[in-house]
Amino acid sequence: MELDLSPKLARKVYGGNGGSYYAWSPSELPMLREGNIGAAKLALEKNGFALPRYSDSAKVAYVLQGTGVAGIVLPESEEKVLAIKKGDAIALPFGVVTWWYNKEDTELVVLFMGDTSKAHKSGEFTDFFLTGTNGIFTGFTTEFVSRAWDLDENIVKALVGKQAGNGIVQLHGNFKMPEPKKEHREGMALNCEEAPLDVDIKKGGRVVVLNTNNLPLVGEVGLGADLVRLDGSAMCSPGFSCDSALQVTYIIRGSGRLQVVGVDGHRVLETTVKAGNLLIVPRFFVVSKIAAPDGLEWFSIITTPNPIFTHLAGRTSVWKALSPQVLQAAFDVDANTEKLFRSKRNSDAIFFPPPN
């Protein structure tokens, strides 16, 4: 039975006045389970506070909207408090404890994508909360917690039982959270909208690649990522990951047409993608996109920290590397047709502007 590769929207898992948590389910997007990938979104309203938690999966977080504050505690390290804003990418290795807070009117939305190969459930993140009605200490007896914290049992009962929220709460407007420190961002976050461009094609598109060079922590996460912005009606060259990596793509803005071709030249997906869609391209399958007139923007993770892609159009494509005789024999065409084919797309571009 062929897998359903069609893009899907996230569904709400829990939430309240402070905000909501959404996730993509492997039952609706089977490639999550097949590829051991998890994906979720956190949306915080004004004064929304995502309670401290750790996860069973290494992730990359990407801020889709708004500004806020993130608290990050790496194993056996001090807390880092980061100011975060739209375009920020943050690598979150195993064992990291995080909290998230929004003090502004604009909703703060953070996307999470990561590797679930060591998770409790393949294709899903499981978070372990430190506080709240489902906090881990609610499962211990008061005696155990009292001895662990060296506190009177009455104090322990208040600490464990006072917080009536679950996962996300809304704080009072006058509550003062820790102030972020500029130096805490170093090595922890990279703003993909402000970082140097790895690809910049006039009327085509732009790419920023997240890897161990500009954010070394992704090496611990084991994932790479990129932000791609395709101009209106431009095309992204057909290509594939040649190092057996999966590509997981979230559509941030705009819309466009997408085609994926798999084994034996079968087109396994032809669809229109739009903001909010998540899709996964299987290993070695070839994918191409054409943006609608309003453009197309997406953020992807790749299941290797330093991905390598092969493109099938443009000067750097494999076609240009093959000798003329091989192309003539492979296509079964004459020399003139081969020369015409080779003469086209001689730039380094992986994005092609719309035809004149």
From TrEMBL:
Official protein name in the record: Cupin type-1 domain-containing protein
UniProt family annotation: Belongs to the 11S seed storage protein (globulins) family.
Superkingdom of this protein's organism: Eukaryota
Disulfide bond keyword on record: yes
Keywords from the named record: Disulfide bond, Seed storage protein, Storage protein
SMART domains xref list: Cupin_1 (SM00835)
Database matches in SUPFAM superfamilies: RmlC-like cupins
Database matches in InterPro entries: 11S_seedstore_pln, Cupin_1, RmlC-like_jellyroll, RmlC_Cupin_sf, Seed_Storage-Functional
All copies of domain Cupin type-1, residue ranges: 3-157, 195-339
GO MF term (any one): nutrient reservoir activity
